């Protein structure tokens, strides 16, 4: 981009081109808004695919939970043995072309602040956009969560988060401690156990569900996360509400003794970990499968967080600021949830823009005609 100095006006800025951002962009297009003129999609990753482009290659399409298609275009038949990163990356790229979404990348949004005339000032490493509404779809991948344990900095082995995991080969023959009770921990334990010695450590005993996943069960899990977000609390992980689905592969791994969790340690030592009762365990690697947090740092100047630590939402709309929607956040942090959130955010954005029309914003008449 060459006009770094110019401030570009748009009706809506969408930050993030993962499932949630693309779904929002699709519905903006369907409402008649033009990509690049009426709305802009900004993403700081190098390619299409949202966070999927960074997922470890052994997370094949067949091993992913269930990737729902984006609205309006089928993914088609995908080889279950290909990495999800490739399958989803290619699909998203096709999607962006098909609907002419004109994602601008790599563009890193560094801050969103109050602008002038009731607009939002979106600051990036590629210049500034001034937007009347904002759909934030920045996901969680950029904010891996690592808990702190005393002695952590003294560990002489390797520590990494699942976000940095690239495959089991480099851990061959090592003793790997996998910390965390979610789906990623389980998948990586099963993979690593083929080449390494593993120990699983969790804060709470994980709950494996033997009953199959039903729509109703999914809905009630989402409702629980939704309620937290409505109260302004940080959304908790989906597994903490749903438990882990016990698939055939998981049952087989349980029978082989791979998935036997132990209580997490109390401190980290140079050569491993230790418990308060004096027990110690040596290890070469600590793999933190401890999840992610919402990547919202760029919104900090707007002070959207509640005393409870989360952003209170009414649907996808930020309770404190009706110009802003969070999609792919909390209850909509799944591929299906992101689709729905994109649609409902756009419905509200259009209503908001139409309402503001009456109080007259001079630059916007043209595009408002389109969104009515
Ligand atoms: C290992 C793993 C496996 C998963 N498997 C599944 C599954 O099988 N099925 C399922 O439904 N869900 C799964 N999920 C959850 C999944 O993350 C969501 O379903 C969905 O893909 C998230 O989409 P999103 O658009 O919210 O976020 P993302 O895909 O993370 O997209 C966010 C985008 O925002 C961009 N961005 C972030 N910050 C900025 C910034 N400041 N400026 C500019 N751009 C920015 C990023 O570059 C990224 O492209 C999985 C999650 C993980 C971690």
| Distinct ligands, ions and cofactors found in the model | flavin-adenine dinucleotide
Please identify the top-level CATH class of the largest domain: Alpha Beta
Shape: globular
- How many structural domains in the coordinates? 2
Pfam families: Pyr_redox_3
GO molecular function, one term: monooxygenase activity
Keywords: Oxidoreductase
InterPro entries: Auxin_biosynth/cation_transpt, FAD/NAD-bd_sf
Account of the 3D structure:
By secondary structure, this protein is an alpha/beta fold. It folds into two domains: about 210 residues, FAD/NAD(P)-binding domain, CATH 3.50.50; about 100 residues, FAD/NAD(P)-binding domain, CATH 3.50.50.60. Helix content is about 25%, strand content about 20%. The strands form four sheets. Strands 1, 2, 3, 4, 5, 16, 17 and 18 form an eight-stranded mixed β-sheet that branches. A five-stranded parallel β-sheet has the order 6-15-7-8-11, covered by helices on one side. Strands 12-13-14 form a three-stranded antiparallel β-sheet, with no helix packed on it. Strand 12 and strand 13 form a beta hairpin. The C terminus is likely disordered.
């Amino acid at each position: 981009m060459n006009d770094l100095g110019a401030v570009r006006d748009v009706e809506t800025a969408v930050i993030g081109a993962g499932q949630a951002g693309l779904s929002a962009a699709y519905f903006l297009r369907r409402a008649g808004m033009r990509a690049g003129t009426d709305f802009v999609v900004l993403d700081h990753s190098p390619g299409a695919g949202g966070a999927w482009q960074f997922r470890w290659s052994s997370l094949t399409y067949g091993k992913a939970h269930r990737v729902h298609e984006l609205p309006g275009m089928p993914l088609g038949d995908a080889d279950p043995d290909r990495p999800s990163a490739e399958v989803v990356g290619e699909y998203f790229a096709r999607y962006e072309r098909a609907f002419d979404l004109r994602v601008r990348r790599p563009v890193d949004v560094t801050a969103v602040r109050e602008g002038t005339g009731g607009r939002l000032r979106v600051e990036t490493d590629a210049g500034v956009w001034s937007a009347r509404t904002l759909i934030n779809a920045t996901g969680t991948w950029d904010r891996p969560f690592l808990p702190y344990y005393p002695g952590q900095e003294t560990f002489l082995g390797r520590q990494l988060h699942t976000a940095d995991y690239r495959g089991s080969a480099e851990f061959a023959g090592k003793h790997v401690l996998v910390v965390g009770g979610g789906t990623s921990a389980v998948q990586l334990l099963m993979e690593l156990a083929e080449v390494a010695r593993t120990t699983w450590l969790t804060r709470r005993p994980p709950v494996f569900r033997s009953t199959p996943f039903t729509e109703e069960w999914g809905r009630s899990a989402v409702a629980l996360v939704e309620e937290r977000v409505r109260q302004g609390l940080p959304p908790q992980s989906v597994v903490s509400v749903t438990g882990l689905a016990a698939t055939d592969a998981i049952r087989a791994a349980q029978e082989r003794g791979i998935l036997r969790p132990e209580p997490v340690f109390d401190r980290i030592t140079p050569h491993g970990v230790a418990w308060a009762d004096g027990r110690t365990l040596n290890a070469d690697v600590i793999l933190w499968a401890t999840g992610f947090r919402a990547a919202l740092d760029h919104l900090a100047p707007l002070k959207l967080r509640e005393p409870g630590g989360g952003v209170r939402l009414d649907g996808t709309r930020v309770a404190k600021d009706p110009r802003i929607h969070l999609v792919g956040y909390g209850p909509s942090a799944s591929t299906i949830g992101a689709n729905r959130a994109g649609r409902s955010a756009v419905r509200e954005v259009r209503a908001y823009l139409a309402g503001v029309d009456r109080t007259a914003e001079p630059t916007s008449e043209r595009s408002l005609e389109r969104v009515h």
